[in-house]
Amino acid sequence: MTASTLSRLIILVVCLFLAGIIVLLFQTTAAEQRAREQAEATTRSLVMLRRSLSIGLETETGQRGYLLTLEPRYLEPYLRGQDTWLAAIDELRRSLSLTPEQAAKVDRIRELAREKLKEEADTIALAKQGRVEEAIAVVRSDAGKKIMDEIRNLTIALEEEEQTLVTQRLTEAAVIETRTWPILYLLVGGILVLVVIGFWLEKRSALAEMSAHEADALRAASERSDLLARELNHRVKNLFAVILSIVSLSGRGETNVKRAVEKISDRIHALSIAHAVSQGQLEAKTVPLADVVKATIEPYSESGAAISMDGPDVVLPVRAITPFGLFVHELATNAAKYGALSEEGGRLDISWSLDAEGAETKVRFLWWESSSRQVPEKAPLDGFGSLMMTQSARQLKGRGDRRWHESGIVAELVFPLSES
Amino acid sequence: MTDGLCKMLWSPSIYLPSRFPAAAFRAMARLDDPKSKGLSERRILIVEDEAMIALDLEMSLEDAGAEVVGPAMDIETALDLATDEDDEIDAAILDVDMHGKDAFAVAEALAARGVPFLFHTGHASQAELRRRFGDVPVCIKPTRHDVLLHHLAKLVD
């Protein structure tokens, strides 16, 4: 399972937990709401039942007071109750939501209340006619007391039922709460744990990504250094091969050991100059042409000859440096032995230009020696030197040419810049 | 003395220790074997982008009596020479890395013509050469020219 799938799973589970929490809270609140509503309803019922009962008792008190004293002011509670008792019961019946059993009980109370009121009205009427004894006898018959006892019992029963209902709802709410809280704690705890796990995963994947980056960078660096080491190895092998060839070529046809050694060491020196101008850098892609020329003729600058250099900025690809350097070296070493660089007052004019030939840019390099002497004997051009120059020109995909003019050697090297 | 070694791929018996005496090389090269025609009058193609090495090889081959085709100093010239059916070639010495391009196309053209060749390189991976060309001898630069010529002579025999 990938880290991102795991993260998505965690988010899903957290959402489910949150949904669970909402459902639980809703259930608990609903249960508490029901309990509260029941408590309110019960309180109202209790108040109304008490009121109805007390009105009934008041009518009875009024009746009895009148029968005892025959004073009309004692009738007052009775008269008040006569108007309000049944109305209070009706209101109770109407305004409370009652179970059928409760409704039956209330109806029974109303019926009894009417009977009671009738008994009271009858006795009071008798008393008013002066038949007090008869009225008291009716009261003593206990019929009225029995009615009141039944009303009281019914009222108490109703009150108890209401109390039971409240208790029941409260218990229900309590049960739901008791059940809810541990689950809520679990869910909240679960969410916290998941969030922590999520953070941990996130951090771990960030770390993994970082270390992958680092590993990539390390691998790239190591590959680069391997590549450079391989390239260096190749160049060294190649250089050895070139040196061996120069040694072997320079020794050809040379019977004078001293001269052979001089030639060899000069040419190896030219190689080392070509290497030095590219600073031995494996990654240097180009080197200015002027730098190669300067470095190559530098050892002869003390000759006393006047040397001029003129040409635009031209950069040579690294591959061109060795053949170009060897070409210039052959010219320089020859000039130092027989030509312009061998004498006080000699002149060497080096110039180059860039010629556009179609899509190709060609470098035209000119080496012009002028001797102050009349140069009667034209020293023979070194055969192998010439061969090496021709070959170097070929390596540059160009052509080299060296000849005598009236006061010295002139050499020309033309080669394409892009392909060399 | 750093003796260049030339290995016949798949033939480790040819592998030579680095301090192999020069005399042994000469004996092995059989350059003085009168019965062997060797390289004389053989036409040998040189493909080499380093001027001095090309020149040196050319002269060594001419000393051995061979006729040099080339030297080709870039792939295009090498391909032209290798595919020119009118121009007979008996064997070839191929540098592998030519100005950053490999000379495999030249090797394939020669193989197609049935011209034997050897690689003379400081660059190429031997595994790569072995995979592509099987038993072709590979001489790692720098290789002594007598050893190189010995292998060349075996190719044309």
From TrEMBL, chain A:
Keywords associated with the record: ATP-binding, Kinase, Membrane, Nucleotide-binding, Phosphoprotein, Transferase, Transmembrane, Transmembrane helix
Reactions catalysed, as given in the entry: ATP + protein L-histidine = ADP + protein N-phospho-L-histidine
Gene Ontology MF terms in the entry: ATP binding; protein histidine kinase activity
Residue ranges of domain Signal transduction histidine kinase HWE region in the record: 231-313
Organism of derivation: Consotaella salsifontis
Pfam families according to UniProt: CHASE3, HWE_HK
UniProt-listed Enzyme Commission number(s): 2.7.13.3
Name by which UniProt lists this protein: histidine kinase
TrEMBL record, chain B:
GO MF annotations in UniProt: phosphorelay response regulator activity; transcription cis-regulatory region binding
Coiled-coil annotated residue ranges, if any: none
A single BP term in Gene Ontology: regulation of DNA-templated transcription
GO CC field: cytosol; protein-DNA complex
Bilayer-crossing regions: none
Residue ranges of domain Response regulatory in the record: 43-156
Modified residues (4-aspartylphosphate): 95
Pfam family, one: Response_reg
InterPro entries the record matches: CheY-like_superfamily, Sig_transdc_resp-reg_receiver, WalR-like
SMART domains: REC
Keywords for the protein's UniProt record, in alphabetical order: DNA-binding, Phosphoprotein, Two-component regulatory system
PANTHER family xrefs: PHOSPHATE REGULON TRANSCRIPTIONAL REGULATORY PROTEIN PHOB, REGULATOR OF RPOS
UniProt protein name: Response regulator receiver domain-containing protein
Organism, as annotated: Consotaella salsifontis
